[in-house]
């Protein structure tokens, strides 16, 4: 397969177009005038997140949307309070990137009671109750994890020995951490040669990724691969690998997710071997959804973002245009 053409199966998918979560078409009465949106962001701690925020703020501002923006500081409780504030403010649309998958049903019922449509961005939630949100936009995290595993299997396809893998996991209970893990396992396909010998939480952060990897390398040195669920933890792991006297990308292969500029630089230097993109620039797609919801038009239940994968072969074609 031509590697430049290896796009993940994450192409824009306007699935279930026009349907709500329960399969019924959700059409709200059309409104007029300036749209007010309440948006709750997870936190401000990374370049990925900053790019996501910038994209959303920019897309809404050029459409003259009045934005009430809140930052949850990685706290679900703070985020729920933010959303309750938006409900009190009687915003037209609520959008938020859920810190974790569970625990939002009650506040979403409050929003539904107040007839305020909710759009999930970036991360999704788990709920058994249909109709708590009108649409969800973001990456296919399971496909990202699976793509990482398929690369690992390809890289070690001729090996006869066991391949020891360290997994650095993101925020516990968050959709990307849960789904990337599931996708990675699915991608390994139960092949007994590939063994996850350690799974450590690195909370999607560089220092925590570094600390987690250092702890692993203190207890064992026979590591072949690091699968970091985002670039930041992977970049942290590079420092830990070097501190242990090993060469990242050579003695220990490193596979990550996101494709921020720092990650692409490390890839171009051979310190990271493969990166699956997770695209934070979802502002334009979110703005289209907000408009349609405001106008009472039917919206797709799920919008996947368009993403690709990076190797040493193609990274130099993209590294200069990466702004985050
Ligand atoms: O939800 C997207 C993930 O969250 C990104 O991979 C990560 O960098 C961020 O913390």
What does this structure look like?
By secondary structure, the chain is of the alpha/beta class. It has two domains: 161 residues, Rossmann fold; 138 residues, 3-Layer(aba) Sandwich (Rossmann fold). Helices cover 37% and strands 19% of the residues. It is built from ten helices and 13 strands. Strands 1-12-6-5-4-2-3 form a seven-stranded mixed β-sheet, with helices on both faces. A six-stranded mixed β-sheet has the order 8-7-9-10-11-13, sandwiched between helices. α4 runs parallel beside α5 and α6 crosses α7. The longest helix has 16 residues. It starts with 13 loop residues before the first strand and ends in a 9-residue tail after the last helix. 49% of the residues are buried. The N terminus is likely disordered. Bound molecules: alpha-L-arabinofuranose. Alpha-L-arabinofuranose binds next to α1 and β10.
């Amino acid at each position: 397969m031509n590697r430049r053409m290896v796009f993940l199966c994450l192409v824009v998918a306007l699935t279930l177009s026009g349907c709500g979560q329960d399969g019924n078409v959700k059409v709200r009465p059309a409104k007029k005038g300036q749209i007010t949106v309440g948006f709750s962001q997870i936190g401000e701690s990374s370049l990925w997140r900053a790019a996501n925020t910038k994209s959303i703020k920019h897309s809404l501002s050029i459409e003259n949307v009045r934005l009430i923006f809140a930052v949850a500081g990685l706290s679900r409780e703070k985020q729920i309070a933010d959303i309750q504030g938006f409900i009190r403010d009687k915003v037209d649309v609520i959008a938020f990137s859920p810190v974790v998958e569970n625990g939002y049903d009650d506040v979403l019922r409050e929003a539904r009671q107040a007839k305020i449509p909710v759009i999930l961005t970036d991360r999704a939630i788990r709920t058994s109750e249909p109709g708590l949100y009108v649409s969800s936009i973001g990456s296919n995290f399971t496909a990202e994890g699976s793509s990482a595993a398929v690369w690992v299997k390809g890289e070690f396809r001729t090996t006869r020995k066991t391949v020891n893998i360290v997994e650095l996991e993101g925020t516990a209970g968050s959709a990307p951490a849960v789904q990337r893990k599931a996708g990675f396992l699915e991608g390994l396909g139960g092949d007994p040669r590939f063994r996850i010998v350690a799974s450590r939480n690195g909370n999607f952060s560089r220092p925590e990724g570094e600390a987690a990897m250092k702890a692993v390398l203190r207890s064992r040195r026979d590591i072949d691969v690091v699968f970091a669920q985002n670039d930041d933890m992977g970049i942290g792991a590079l420092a830990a690998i070097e501190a242990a006297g090993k060469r990242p990308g050579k003695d220990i292969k490193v596979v990550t997710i996101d494709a921020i500029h720092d990650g692409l630089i490390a890839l171009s230097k051979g310190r990271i071997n493969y990166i699956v993109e997770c695209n934070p620039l979802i502002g334009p797609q979110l703005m289209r959804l907000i408009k349609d919801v405001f106008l009472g038009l039917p919206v797709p239940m799920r919008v996947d973002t368009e993403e690709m994968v990076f190797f040493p072969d193609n990274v130099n074609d993209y590294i200069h245009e990466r702004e985050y």
